[in-house]
Design a protein that fits this description.
- By secondary structure, the chain is of the alpha/beta class.
- It folds into two domains: 320 residues, TIM Barrel, CATH 3.20.20; 128 residues, TIM Barrel, CATH 3.20.20.20.
- The chain is built from 24 helices and 20 strands.
- Helix 5 runs parallel beside helix 14.
- Bound molecules: (6S)-5,6,7,8-tetrahydrofolate.
- The site of (6S)-5,6,7,8-tetrahydrofolate (THG) has 19 residues, from strand 11, helix 15 and strand 14.
């Protein structure tokens, strides 16, 4: 990380940092003509380029420089590059998709030069350059929810476009990146993923600001609540997380209050009010500044600036106010696992035990397998809906069947789940033994999912590679108690394998302890399981009798010895040998869960419909 970036990380705790205002509104004031936009190079462009503001970094760099300088003179200490749309997807509307990296590089250099000049002329004043990264003109979530046939647009295409833009911005010398005006968290996740790759490619780490735009319903355009959004992007570990654009400073106040509990600095840069009938923004500096001042007064912000309709005059007022208030103190990370669909789900023992619905599993339900094979996707989605109705708080999805194209079915089904608001509300658990299928699912989930699962089965290298994918995709993860020697079935092996995996994840893969879920293997009781260690059937039958008990002891051990980690298990496995008797199965599950929860289990993959209260089970059977 550059020293300047590191100083910014420190500065947001020390004072309120002022960000610049709008670029577009300022450009309008220059009344530029089509030929200004075209410059020398694009005189015969078949499409009009007027409106493609980013191209001005190449064709009218003097204008962009002047705007940067005007904001710096007004008191902005972070200026944003003129690169909001400098990505191949947005630029394709002007036939300029091939110019994304070049424009981004030019944008970064212009802002860098303006900032360096300013610092030279104003010794002791530090200013920073933020690479502006807009949402692009397309939404991944919305494209898949309308079953968009546009197969040219998917996660990989979007992430590649972001990568090109961000790599060029970093090469051009930005101190940080601002992923802004986010209206779809899935796009934002692709941007965060790409930012990691761009930092790896350039060898420069830059802090991120994550800035979301809410609609008047208080949700993103693609339907998430603010809390669900924060859970979804928290893995970016942003220097600041906040709001921009939207419906003006006043309306943002309650959302700023909601942001105050998160362990990130808070940034806010509102529009100058709501757009009028002409699409213009009316709030003058005198009208807007008191509203922004109230945010500072209430200690809600660390970074403040303006979005559409704001000018250097607005920024001058904000800077004046900022000088007399303290920045918001940044709370510590509470260490709670938060998953999300369209709504957030906190996983903490104080709150609730989590039921993960098991029925959307082609290997665990003949009915679901038949529906997927027939292509009856609506009825398959109904299974998810019915589980949610019966109390499932997370939906496990598994497409592991030799007759199916597993990655493709995973993608298709998960895209459909995301399109049904009553199901999309809850987080997804992506369950597969194929890593390709897991990644395929993750690339289509708007919220914060759980990966089910990774293990040491294929050794440390593969384990860590998968773990880093999990981290960069922002998921929580189930770790099976499995290693190079096979499935852990004894208490000792279960705990040893989990402890080893825990250290690797925390120390080498950068996974937070509270995002790890151990699964110490619920095995069938009363059945011979091949432990693979060459022992005889008689030994193994004895082992199977102890197996459930050893699982319970392992739950307790993990909760005591691996701080923050969660424990889960697939409960229906337990009674596999008793398939002929449904009641006995349900009774076994309820009693087993009763003990597992008592010992600290956090969640389980269950048939949400079948729970029976332990007290209703006749005593002899219970015994
Ligand atoms: N741990 C983790 N993930 C898992 C498991 C686990 N995923 C899969 C599985 N185990 C959990 N899911 C199920 C789903 C269904 C059944 C068992 C476990 C089941 N199905 C009926 C049966 O086989 O009798 C089929 C009924 C039907 O066809 O309708 O029992 O342990 N991390």
């Amino acid at each position: 990380m550059k020293d300047a970036s590191a100083r910014l990380v420190a500065s947001v705790k020390e004072r309120i940092i002022v960000l610049d205002g709008a670029m577009g509104t300022m450009i309008q004031d220059y009344a530029l003509t089509e030929s200004d936009f075209r410059g020398q190079e694009w005189t015969d462009s078949p499409v009009n380029l007027k409106g493609c503001n980013d191209i001005l970094c190449v064709t009218r760099p003097d204008v962009i420089s002047e705007i940067h300088t005007a904001y710096l003179d007004a008191g902005a200490r972070i200026i944003e590059t003129n690169s909001f749309n400098s990505n191949a997807i947005s630029l394709s509307e002007y036939g300029l998709q091939g110019e994304a990296a070049r424009i981004s590089l030019a944008a970064a250099r212009l802002a860098r030069d303006a900032a360096d000049r300013f610092m030279q002329q104003n010794p002791g004043q530090e200013v920073w350059v933020a690479g502006s990264v807009g949402p692009t003109s397309k939404s991944l979530s919305m494209a898949q929810s309308i079953g968009d046939a546009d197969t040219d647009f998917d996660w990989d295409v979007l992430a590649a476009a972001y990568f090109d833009q961000m790599k060029a911005l970093i090469e051009g010398g930005v101190d940080l990146l601002v992923i802004e005006t986010i209206f779809d968290a899935l796009n934002a996740k692709a941007a965060i993923f790409a930012s990691r790759r761009a930092m790896e490619a350039t060898g420069v780490r830059v802090p991120l600001i994550i800035s979301v735009t809410l609609t008047e319903s208080g949700r993103t355009l693609s339907g998430q609540t603010l809390e669900a959004f924060v859970a979804t992007v928290a893995h970016a570990d942003p220097i600041a997380l906040g709001l921009n654009c939207g419906f003006g400073a006043e309306g943002m106040m309650p959302y700023l209050e909601s942001l105050s509990r998160y362990p990130f600095a808070v940034s806010v840069y509102p529009n100058a009010g709501l757009p009028n009938e002409m699409g213009l923004y009316d709030e003058t500096p005198q009208v807007m500044a008191p509203k922004v001042r109230r945010m500072m007064e209430r200690g809600l912000v660390n970074i403040v600036g303006g979005c559409c309709g704001t000018t250097p005059d607005h920024i001058r007022e904000f800077a004046r106010a900022a000088a007399s208030y303290r920045p918001r103190p940044i709370p510590h990370d509470g260490g709670v696992m938060t998953l999300a669909g369209l709504e957030p789900l906190e996983v903490s023992r104080e709150r609730n035990f989590l039921n993960v619905g098991e029925r959307c599993n082609v290997a665990g339900s003949r009915k679901f397998l038949r529906l997927i094979k027939e292509g009856s996707i609506q009825e398959a989605v109904d299974i998810a809906r019915s589980q949610v109705g019966k109390g499932a708080q997370v939906i496990d999805v598994n497409m592991d069947d030799g007759m199916l194209d597993t990655p493709q079915e995973m993608a298709r089904f998960i895209s459909r789940l995301g399109a049904e608001p009553d199901v999309a509300r809850v987080p997804v658990m992506v369950d597969s033994s194929s890593w390709e299928a897991i990644m395929s699912g993750l690339k289509r989930i708007q919220g914060r999912p759980v990966v089910n699962s990774i293990s040491l089965k294929e050794g440390e290298e593969a384990f860590l590679a998968h773990a880093r994918d999990v981290r960069d995709m922002g998921a929580a993860v189930v770790v099976m108690a499995f290693d190079e020697n096979g499935q852990a079935v004894t208490f000792r092996r279960r705990t040893e394998v989990c402890a080893r995996a825990y250290r690797l994840l925390v120390d080498k893969a950068g996974i937070r302890p509270h995002d790890i879920i151990f699964d110490p293997n619920v095995l069938a009781v009363g059945a011979v399981v091949d432990s693979g260690d060459g022992s005889t059937d008689a030994d193994e039958l004895m082992q199977s009798r102890r197996s459930a008990l050893d699982f319970l002891r392992a739950v307790e051990w993990i909760k005591t010895n691996l701080p923050g980690a969660k424990v889960s298990g697939g409960i229906s496995n337990l009674s596999y040998a008793f398939r002929a008797n449904k009641y006995v199965r349900k009774a076994m599950h309820s009693i087993f869960l009763h003990h597992a929860i008592r010992l600290g289990m956090d969640m389980a993959i269950v048939n949400a419909a079948e729970a029976i209260p332990v007290d209703d089970i006749p005593a002899p059977l219970r015994e």
